[in-house]
Amino acid sequence: MKIAILSRNSKLYSTQRLKEACVQRGHEARVIDYLRCYMDITSHNPKLIYQGEPLDGYHAVIPRVGASHTFYGTAVVRQFEMMSVFPTNESTAISRSRDKLRSLQLLSRDGIGLPVTGFANSTKDIDGLINLVGGAPLVIKLLEGTQGIGVILAETQKAAQAVIEAFRGLNANILVQEFIKEAGGSDMRCFVVGGKVIAAMKRQGPPGEFRSNLHRGGSSEKVKLTPEERSTAVRSAKAMGLNVAGVDILRSNHGPVVMEVNSSPGLEGIEAATGIDVAGKIVEFIEKNADAKNTRDKGKG
Ligand code: ADP
Ligand code: MG
């Protein structure tokens, strides 16, 4: 098969591993910087052009679209879909996953466990919002943050009021969330491929840090999930319409609660912690599913 890997940087661990796994399994793979593609969207014969030449003959595409380039990146994925190329994750599902509010609404609709969460744009009733999630301590999140940046723990009512007020002044969209203290600064990253959890790790923030993100200096180790955590991860990926997903779960007093669902989960941390060939599992998924008729959306929506 001929497989395109959409990535801005061919030297990234995840990009290299995916390419390696494609080649190891007998496929042809090419890393494509999606920001440098341009497209012919008007013709009956949709085209993508890269480095002066049309991208032809691809069977599958693995999108690794960065959070800051969702708009253009998903347009390129959509163009591949219009060309009947099978994407590991569809453009619509990637867009969905990039909006924390939309994601939580979709998960909630499917009855998946979530921390008690309130949303506000520029509410005047700050105390009402704080009470909605049970008062301080609580977590305040910028809707479009990633890698733990824009996630704040407000330990007192006063701190919560001040932070919400500050964000309101900046016209920022924020989520206010019950603080899951019992998680102790750790979470479970469940790597889902094709409706199965193929690898899982526990991430732990450094001492004094409630955020477990590896980018914030957290550490990770292999973990055994409970059946409930496993099914929560699988159902979450399904609710988002993602074939490949990193589902982050906290262990709360009221069972597993989902933090977020990532559509381009990194491979380095999970492969190091578990020793599992995650890249190989993704390519195996493509082998089983990459059939033009499986390109469900054909770029619609
Ligand atoms: P990001 O997209 O920036 O990673 P997350 O919503 O995943 O934002 O939050 C980052 C980390 O902060 C989580 O992995 C978790 O460890 C911690 N965290 C976030 N929300 C809560 C919460 N409500 N209770 C406890 N810890 C939280
Ligand atoms: Mg996160």
Automatic annotation (TrEMBL):
Q: Kindly list the positions annotated as binding Mg(2+) 2.
A: E260, N262
Give its E.C. classification number.
6.3.2.-
Quote a single Gene Ontology cellular component term.
cytoplasm
The residues that hold Mg(2+) 1 are D248, E260
Q: Name one GO molecular function term.
A: ribosomal S6-glutamic acid ligase activity
| Residues of the ATP-grasp domain | 104-287
Entry's Gene Ontology BP terms: SOS response; translation
Q: Where does Mn(2+) 1 bind?
A: D248, E260
**UniProt keywords, alphabetically:** ATP-binding, Ligase, Magnesium, Manganese, Metal-binding, Nucleotide-binding, Protein biosynthesis
Q: What is this protein called?
A: Probable alpha-L-glutamate ligase
